[in-house]
Design goal:
Helix 9 packs across helix 22. The chain contains 23 helices and 16 strands. It is an alpha/beta fold. Strand 1 and strand 2 form a beta hairpin. Helices cover 40% and strands 16% of the residues. The model has no long low-confidence stretch (mean pLDDT 90). It has a five-stranded parallel beta sheet. A four-stranded mixed beta sheet has the order 1-2-4-3. A three-stranded parallel beta sheet has the order 5-8-9, with helices on both faces. The chain is elongated. The longest helix is centred in the C-terminal third of the chain and has 18 residues.
Amino acid sequence: MYSSITSGGVRGIISYLMQIEVDVSSGLPGFNMVGFMSGDVREAGDRVKVALRNAGIKIPASKITVNLSPADIKKEGVVVDLPLAVGILEAIGEVSPGCADDTVVLGEVGLDGDIKEVKGVLPIVTKAKEAGYKTVILPIKNAREGAVVSGMKIVGVSSLQEVIMYLSTPERERDGLIEPTRVNLDKIFSEDEESSEGVDFADINGQSAVKRAAMVAAAGFHHILIVGPPGSGKSMVAKRIPTILPRLSLEESIEVSTIYSVAGMMGENKALITKRPFVSPHHLITEASLVGGGTIPRPGAISLAHRGILFLDEMPEFPRTKLDMLRQPIEDRKVHIVRNRGTFMYPADFQLIGALNPCPCGYYPDRNKCKCTSNEIRRYLGRISGPILDRIDICIEAPKVDIRELSGKSDTCNESSKTMRERVLLARKKQEERFRGTSLKFNSEMTPADIRKYCKLGMRERAFLEKTFCSMDLSARAYHKVLRLARTIADLEGEEMIKEIHLMEAVSYRMTDGKYWRQEEG
């Protein structure tokens, strides 16, 4: 007999549907699989045969041929185990012919018949819906993830016996046997909204200028670099920036969840990623793990940080070659990986936050503590190339914190993440209204033409900017950066026009760059 079961797979983050065709015929007993597949897919035959036997199913001594189509796409992963088992069950008459029509099946099968979770469920279920399918049978641990796709009937199963029982039951009675999985998206988002972040900007005493710069960066989606000695709070500030960012929208959440689903990092029984990612890779991370790739291409750290933050602590400790690999993704907001089996594209729209000491020992320019030579400092800072620096809008110094601020005896009041977040949300709303109908979302994305349109200056502001740029000998790129920053600062202050005070603050975020990367020899 012949049977055909629909399943799915993923190439990069793009999903596709496949057909698992099974033919059981008389002849010399054997089991043969064809259809351009990887080793783990080819091994599915051995796993399924043992699992069916342990589930009490006797496979007749027949010639079994399995074809996976389309033949021009290499099949990878273990999602074909369960559809292969269902195809064999249908072909040998253990379940009724056509019982899995209009149904997509996916899952890994253990030798004992247990159904194990798989990667890429969210994009596959989305593809199934686009193709007109209404039901998906998948592992119970992936059921909530699949149920995110509205309008789909998600049947979560935990064993082969459960699958056989479900498919052997008349269709009208199946819902009483296994209740389809459903999720309440509003509840998921509201629960995460109420959950504690665990960290707050109010925990940080001092460093008011750095916290202000962090708020500007969050409001306009600007990349930021924090320079300062050890213990000055650079990492503390960076780890609290997610607390002042807007929540992920449903559309953004599905984008992020798709990436984590493909990477196998969703977590058991997790429906969606609802919080903005914060990815902080170690400086020994491989190039493939940073930007994506590998023998079986998978998303790297920069894609896992999509719609969130990529934090590079001790940035000069990363090899320069790895840092320079960020140049193209920062510009294009996606990364292309070319392999002999095809080209893969992963989204990489992240906010870069870098933190570093100003020299190898960490205490420059305090010459009472710093013993590094000028050449050592130049070599150390030179690991961050000019093209990377050009893509960072804000460079701020985190000086040593005063003891009075640490003890809480200073006159300054620590602003909470909640208060800062409210201001960031208002600034983001202004940008949304300003750029409605365009491809822009944030001030940081403005081109020179956009800057001329949205960053109008008065006579006084124009004169200040001309004088400043002549005295500081800044480039045209720096000019555009200052105006982007000034636009964001004005939005934070609720101002429609950019004022001189906004320009002064924006220029100050370029002075640290000059202090450390344009220092004179000697």
